[in-house]
Design goal:
Blueprint lengths: L7 H19 L8 E5 L6 H18 L2 E6 L10 H9 L8 E2 H4 L5 H5 L6 E6 L15 E6 L15 E3 L5 H9 L10 H13 L12 H18 L3 H17 L6 H7 L1 E7 L6 E9 L3 H7 L3 H8 L4 E6 L1
Parallel strand pairs: 1-2, 1-4, 2-3, 4-5, 5-6, 8-9
Antiparallel strand pairs: 7-8
Helix pairs in contact: 2-6, 2-7, 3-9, 6-8, 7-8
């Protein structure tokens, strides 16, 4: 089945939203039209990517306004999300047209935001319900939330249908519920595949023994599967299993990542002091799913590459 079928409009949307978004971000005071940012959470897993992109596309179609999915990671970290990269490649999603964090950084200062005309900026959160610290200047502009985590009670001005916070398996389930009114979005394969793949991965293929899928996840996934079956004449049970198994494999497959990438997948750095000295040490901890001997065999220059890639005094490497 061609997962990318029907993605042309979605890619046109991403290209146009980046063009318009870049114009606004470079000179917000000249913007006379409302602009909206749909923002996934700081970790930017598949759920955050898909929920923000698909909901932004839905709003742009419905409202005819500039709606931009904002990606909360550096562009160079995209390849670290191996499941996201695989699914976007299979659906031919042109992710290069996304606006990443670095594109947005200059906009995030008080003077810039003060120059934005009243009611010309709207922020919508998906897959989280409190903005990260680095985006906290946008707090006054939050107008809508779609999330599946516990409600932290922020943004009391966001009420009613604009505050869809429900503990389900995937935020993408709630986005699919919101956009279901537009059946045109479900007629191709690309958007249904993006939605379905995310829901299946978040709920461990809807299997009851993992206790991740709620009745709503199951109902939405079943609706998408039925449409894919009717349009493509496929064995939908086999397709579902194969789709999930491949995504699960891709999520944990780090064999094609470089040493620099492997170090950044799950890297944390701490500043530590000794009791009897004022000297401070930078200690880095990195973990990966690739075995140590396999990594060394793959890259004999691992120590040299590590030293040149990161700034630290001591590094602890944890591998499987």
């Amino acid at each position: 089945m061609e997962l990318h079928r029907g993605n042309e409009e979605l890619n046109r949307f991403l290209s146009e939203s980046k063009r318009k978004g870049t114009e606004v971000l470079s000179n917000p005071s000249n913007n006379n039209n409302r602009i909206s940012f749909v923002i996934g959470n700081e970790a930017m897993d598949l759920d955050s990517f898909v929920s923000s992109i698909v909901y932004a596309y839905f709003l742009s179609k419905r409202e005819g306004e500039v709606v931009i999915p904002l990606i909360q990671i550096p562009k160079e970290d995209f390849s670290l999300r191996t499941d996201v990269a695989w699914l976007f490649n299979e659906t031919r999603l042109e992710w290069d047209n996304l606006i990443f964090l670095k594109d947005f950084e200059e906009f995030l200062n008080e003077n810039r935001l003060k120059s934005v005309k009243e009611d010309k900026l709207r922020v919508i959160l998906t897959d989280h319900n409190v903005l990260s610290r680095k985006l906290s200047l946008l707090n006054p502009f939050v107008e809508e939330i779609i999330d599946h985590h516990a409600d932290e009670g922020k943004y009391p001005q966001v009420k009613g249908e604009k505050r869809l916070i429900e503990v389900v398996g995937s935020a993408t389930t709630l986005v699919a519920q919101k956009i279901r009114e537009d059946e045109e979005l479900f007629k191709g394969n690309a958007i249904p595949s993006l939605l379905l793949g995310t829901i299946l991965l978040d709920t461990v293929n809807l299997l009851p023994e993992f206790n991740r899928a709620t009745p709503k996840d199951i109902e939405i996934a079943s609706h998408i599967l039925k449409g894919l079956e009717e349009r493509n004449n496929v064995d939908i049970k086999k397709f579902q299993k194969d789709f999930f198994d491949t995504l699960q494999k891709e999520r944990f497959d780090q064999t094609n990542l470089s040493t620099q990438d492997l170090l950044r997948v799950d890297y944390k750095q701490f500043t530590m002091e000794t009791k009897n000295s004022s000297k401070k040490y930078e200690v880095g901890i990195s973990s990966s799913k690739i075995k140590g001997e396999e990594w060394i065999s793959k890259d004999p220059n691992i120590i040299k590459v590590t030293s040149s890639s990161l700034s630290f005094d001591y590094l602890t490497k944890l591998s499987s």
